[in-house]
Design goal:
Blueprint lengths: L1 H29 L7 H47 L1 H14 L8 H8 L3 H25 L3 H9 L4 H36 L7 H10 L3 H29 L6
Protein backbone atom coordinates (compact mmCIF):
# COMPACT_ATOMS: atom_id res chain seq x y z
CA UNK A 1 0.00 0.00 0.00
CA UNK A 2 2.80 2.41 0.92
CA UNK A 3 4.63 1.49 -2.28
CA UNK A 4 1.49 2.24 -4.31
CA UNK A 5 1.14 5.66 -2.66
CA UNK A 6 4.82 6.35 -3.29
CA UNK A 7 4.43 5.42 -6.98
CA UNK A 8 1.35 7.62 -7.32
CA UNK A 9 3.13 10.58 -5.71
CA UNK A 10 6.19 10.02 -7.91
CA UNK A 11 3.97 9.93 -11.03
CA UNK A 12 2.35 13.26 -10.06
CA UNK A 13 5.74 14.89 -9.46
CA UNK A 14 7.20 13.61 -12.76
CA UNK A 15 4.09 14.66 -14.67
CA UNK A 16 4.06 18.21 -13.27
CA UNK A 17 7.85 18.54 -13.71
CA UNK A 18 7.50 17.52 -17.39
CA UNK A 19 4.77 20.14 -17.89
CA UNK A 20 6.91 22.88 -16.30
CA UNK A 21 9.96 21.83 -18.34
CA UNK A 22 7.93 21.99 -21.58
CA UNK A 23 6.57 25.40 -20.56
CA UNK A 24 10.11 26.67 -19.80
CA UNK A 25 11.49 25.42 -23.14
CA UNK A 26 8.61 27.03 -25.07
CA UNK A 27 9.15 30.34 -23.23
CA UNK A 28 12.87 30.27 -24.05
CA UNK A 29 12.23 29.45 -27.72
CA UNK A 30 9.55 32.15 -28.21
CA UNK A 31 11.29 34.75 -26.00
CA UNK A 32 8.15 36.86 -25.87
CA UNK A 33 6.76 38.79 -22.83
CA UNK A 34 3.34 37.30 -23.59
CA UNK A 35 4.68 33.91 -22.50
CA UNK A 36 6.71 34.28 -19.28
CA UNK A 37 8.57 31.27 -17.95
CA UNK A 38 7.19 29.20 -15.06
CA UNK A 39 9.50 30.73 -12.42
CA UNK A 40 8.40 34.40 -12.85
CA UNK A 41 4.78 33.24 -13.34
CA UNK A 42 4.79 31.25 -10.08
CA UNK A 43 6.59 34.07 -8.27
CA UNK A 44 3.82 36.46 -9.38
CA UNK A 45 1.20 33.86 -8.45
CA UNK A 46 2.40 33.70 -4.84
CA UNK A 47 2.71 37.49 -4.66
CA UNK A 48 -0.82 37.95 -6.01
CA UNK A 49 -2.20 35.38 -3.59
CA UNK A 50 -1.27 37.65 -0.70
CA UNK A 51 -3.04 40.57 -2.39
CA UNK A 52 -6.33 39.96 -4.20
CA UNK A 53 -6.00 36.70 -6.13
CA UNK A 54 -7.06 34.56 -3.18
CA UNK A 55 -10.44 36.36 -3.08
CA UNK A 56 -11.08 35.72 -6.77
CA UNK A 57 -10.03 32.07 -6.28
CA UNK A 58 -12.48 31.58 -3.39
CA UNK A 59 -15.34 33.19 -5.33
CA UNK A 60 -14.73 31.07 -8.45
CA UNK A 61 -14.34 27.89 -6.37
CA UNK A 62 -17.64 28.63 -4.64
CA UNK A 63 -19.45 29.12 -7.97
CA UNK A 64 -18.05 25.89 -9.45
CA UNK A 65 -18.67 23.72 -6.39
CA UNK A 66 -22.23 24.97 -5.83
CA UNK A 67 -23.02 24.38 -9.52
CA UNK A 68 -21.65 20.83 -9.40
CA UNK A 69 -23.57 20.00 -6.21
CA UNK A 70 -26.87 21.32 -7.65
CA UNK A 71 -26.30 19.46 -10.93
CA UNK A 72 -25.55 16.22 -9.10
CA UNK A 73 -28.54 16.56 -6.78
CA UNK A 74 -30.90 16.84 -9.77
CA UNK A 75 -29.17 14.70 -12.40
CA UNK A 76 -28.45 11.56 -10.34
CA UNK A 77 -32.02 10.69 -9.27
CA UNK A 78 -33.50 11.87 -12.57
CA UNK A 79 -30.99 9.88 -14.63
CA UNK A 80 -31.57 6.73 -12.59
CA UNK A 81 -35.35 7.01 -12.95
CA UNK A 82 -35.26 7.78 -16.68
CA UNK A 83 -32.89 4.86 -17.24
CA UNK A 84 -35.21 2.39 -15.51
CA UNK A 85 -38.66 3.78 -16.30
CA UNK A 86 -39.09 3.31 -20.05
CA UNK A 87 -42.57 4.90 -20.21
CA UNK A 88 -41.39 8.12 -18.59
CA UNK A 89 -38.18 8.15 -20.62
CA UNK A 90 -40.20 7.92 -23.84
CA UNK A 91 -41.67 11.38 -23.15
CA UNK A 92 -38.56 13.02 -21.68
CA UNK A 93 -35.95 11.71 -24.16
CA UNK A 94 -37.10 13.94 -27.08
CA UNK A 95 -36.74 17.00 -24.87
CA UNK A 96 -33.24 15.88 -23.86
CA UNK A 97 -32.22 15.35 -27.48
CA UNK A 98 -33.49 18.83 -28.39
CA UNK A 99 -31.99 20.76 -25.49
CA UNK A 100 -28.71 18.89 -24.89
CA UNK A 101 -26.93 19.98 -28.13
CA UNK A 102 -27.82 23.66 -27.70
CA UNK A 103 -24.76 25.59 -26.41
CA UNK A 104 -26.05 26.90 -23.08
CA UNK A 105 -23.61 29.81 -23.12
CA UNK A 106 -26.06 31.60 -25.45
CA UNK A 107 -28.45 31.88 -22.51
CA UNK A 108 -26.01 33.98 -20.49
CA UNK A 109 -27.50 37.35 -21.57
CA UNK A 110 -31.00 36.08 -20.78
CA UNK A 111 -29.92 34.79 -17.37
CA UNK A 112 -28.22 38.09 -16.56
CA UNK A 113 -31.39 40.01 -17.40
CA UNK A 114 -33.59 37.64 -15.38
CA UNK A 115 -31.25 36.86 -12.47
CA UNK A 116 -28.83 39.77 -12.38
CA UNK A 117 -25.07 39.81 -12.84
CA UNK A 118 -24.17 38.25 -9.48
CA UNK A 119 -23.55 34.69 -8.40
CA UNK A 120 -27.01 33.33 -9.25
CA UNK A 121 -26.84 33.86 -13.03
CA UNK A 122 -23.32 32.37 -13.24
CA UNK A 123 -24.17 29.37 -11.06
CA UNK A 124 -27.35 28.79 -13.06
CA UNK A 125 -25.46 28.87 -16.36
CA UNK A 126 -22.79 26.41 -15.15
CA UNK A 127 -25.50 24.17 -13.69
CA UNK A 128 -27.39 24.19 -17.00
CA UNK A 129 -24.28 23.04 -18.87
CA UNK A 130 -22.97 20.33 -16.55
CA UNK A 131 -26.42 18.99 -15.63
CA UNK A 132 -26.83 17.39 -19.05
CA UNK A 133 -23.25 16.09 -19.07
CA UNK A 134 -24.03 14.21 -15.85
CA UNK A 135 -27.63 13.24 -16.63
CA UNK A 136 -27.14 11.53 -20.00
CA UNK A 137 -24.37 9.05 -18.99
CA UNK A 138 -26.23 8.13 -15.79
CA UNK A 139 -29.44 7.50 -17.72
CA UNK A 140 -27.59 5.30 -20.21
CA UNK A 141 -25.78 3.39 -17.43
CA UNK A 142 -29.05 2.73 -15.59
CA UNK A 143 -30.71 1.58 -18.79
CA UNK A 144 -27.86 -0.83 -19.55
CA UNK A 145 -28.21 -2.86 -16.34
CA UNK A 146 -28.72 -6.54 -17.11
CA UNK A 147 -32.41 -7.45 -16.76
CA UNK A 148 -31.44 -10.80 -15.21
CA UNK A 149 -29.88 -8.98 -12.26
CA UNK A 150 -33.06 -6.97 -11.70
CA UNK A 151 -35.24 -10.06 -11.98
CA UNK A 152 -33.11 -12.03 -9.53
CA UNK A 153 -33.44 -9.25 -6.96
CA UNK A 154 -37.20 -9.08 -7.55
CA UNK A 155 -37.50 -12.84 -7.05
CA UNK A 156 -36.05 -12.35 -3.57
CA UNK A 157 -38.89 -9.96 -2.73
CA UNK A 158 -37.06 -6.68 -3.27
CA UNK A 159 -39.17 -3.56 -3.58
CA UNK A 160 -38.60 -0.81 -6.13
CA UNK A 161 -36.64 1.23 -3.60
CA UNK A 162 -34.39 -1.77 -2.86
CA UNK A 163 -33.65 -2.18 -6.59
CA UNK A 164 -32.61 1.44 -6.90
CA UNK A 165 -30.55 1.31 -3.71
CA UNK A 166 -28.79 -2.05 -4.14
CA UNK A 167 -28.60 -2.46 -7.94
CA UNK A 168 -29.08 0.78 -9.89
CA UNK A 169 -27.06 3.08 -7.64
CA UNK A 170 -23.93 0.84 -7.46
CA UNK A 171 -24.19 0.28 -11.23
CA UNK A 172 -24.26 3.99 -12.11
CA UNK A 173 -21.80 5.17 -9.43
CA UNK A 174 -18.63 4.81 -11.60
CA UNK A 175 -20.43 6.66 -14.40
CA UNK A 176 -21.36 9.42 -11.94
CA UNK A 177 -17.71 9.98 -11.04
CA UNK A 178 -16.54 9.81 -14.66
CA UNK A 179 -19.17 12.28 -15.84
CA UNK A 180 -18.42 14.53 -12.87
CA UNK A 181 -14.74 14.53 -13.86
CA UNK A 182 -15.66 15.67 -17.38
CA UNK A 183 -18.23 18.15 -16.10
CA UNK A 184 -15.76 19.76 -13.68
CA UNK A 185 -13.48 20.73 -16.60
CA UNK A 186 -16.44 22.09 -18.52
CA UNK A 187 -17.68 24.02 -15.50
CA UNK A 188 -14.34 25.86 -15.19
CA UNK A 189 -14.43 26.76 -18.89
CA UNK A 190 -17.99 28.11 -18.58
CA UNK A 191 -16.98 29.91 -15.40
CA UNK A 192 -14.29 31.77 -17.35
CA UNK A 193 -16.79 32.94 -19.99
CA UNK A 194 -19.41 34.00 -17.45
CA UNK A 195 -16.91 35.93 -15.30
CA UNK A 196 -15.44 37.85 -18.23
CA UNK A 197 -18.82 39.44 -19.03
CA UNK A 198 -20.05 42.23 -16.75
CA UNK A 199 -18.24 40.91 -13.70
CA UNK A 200 -15.95 42.47 -11.13
CA UNK A 201 -14.82 39.36 -9.32
CA UNK A 202 -13.71 35.79 -9.98
CA UNK A 203 -10.75 34.28 -11.83
CA UNK A 204 -12.27 35.02 -15.24
CA UNK A 205 -12.49 38.73 -14.39
CA UNK A 206 -8.96 38.63 -12.92
CA UNK A 207 -7.58 37.07 -16.13
CA UNK A 208 -9.36 39.52 -18.43
CA UNK A 209 -8.29 42.49 -16.32
CA UNK A 210 -4.63 41.38 -16.39
CA UNK A 211 -4.85 40.74 -20.14
CA UNK A 212 -6.29 44.23 -20.81
CA UNK A 213 -3.33 45.76 -18.93
CA UNK A 214 -0.80 43.54 -20.76
CA UNK A 215 0.21 42.24 -17.32
CA UNK A 216 1.11 38.83 -18.68
CA UNK A 217 2.71 37.51 -15.51
CA UNK A 218 -0.46 38.32 -13.57
CA UNK A 219 -2.48 36.73 -16.35
CA UNK A 220 -0.49 33.54 -15.97
CA UNK A 221 -0.93 33.76 -12.19
CA UNK A 222 -4.68 33.61 -12.88
CA UNK A 223 -4.20 30.67 -15.25
CA UNK A 224 -2.21 28.84 -12.56
CA UNK A 225 -5.01 29.53 -10.05
CA UNK A 226 -7.59 28.16 -12.51
CA UNK A 227 -5.43 25.07 -13.13
CA UNK A 228 -5.05 24.61 -9.38
CA UNK A 229 -8.82 24.73 -8.95
CA UNK A 230 -9.25 21.98 -11.55
CA UNK A 231 -6.40 19.94 -10.03
CA UNK A 232 -7.95 20.02 -6.55
CA UNK A 233 -11.34 18.92 -7.94
CA UNK A 234 -9.76 16.04 -9.87
CA UNK A 235 -7.78 14.88 -6.81
CA UNK A 236 -10.96 14.92 -4.70
CA UNK A 237 -12.77 12.86 -7.37
CA UNK A 238 -9.88 10.36 -7.54
CA UNK A 239 -10.05 9.98 -3.76
CA UNK A 240 -13.82 9.48 -3.86
CA UNK A 241 -13.46 6.90 -6.62
CA UNK A 242 -10.95 4.91 -4.56
CA UNK A 243 -13.28 5.04 -1.55
CA UNK A 244 -16.61 4.43 -3.31
CA UNK A 245 -15.54 2.07 -6.12
CA UNK A 246 -12.75 -0.10 -4.63
CA UNK A 247 -13.54 -2.95 -7.08
CA UNK A 248 -12.10 -0.87 -9.94
CA UNK A 249 -8.64 -1.06 -8.35
CA UNK A 250 -8.48 -4.78 -7.51
Amino acid sequence: MHKQKYNNLLAIIVSIASLLLGWKLLAVVLDNPALPGPLPAFATFFQELTRDLWRHFIISSYRVLVSLVISLAIAIPLGMVLGREAKLDRYVAPVLYLVYPVPKIVFLPVLMVLLGIGDISKITLITLVVFFQILVPIRDAARGINAAVINSIKSLGARQWDIYKHVVWPAVLPEVLTSLRIASGTSIAILFFSETIVSREGLGYYLLDAWSRYAFQEMFAGIIAMGLLGFVIYMILDYLEHRLCPWKYL
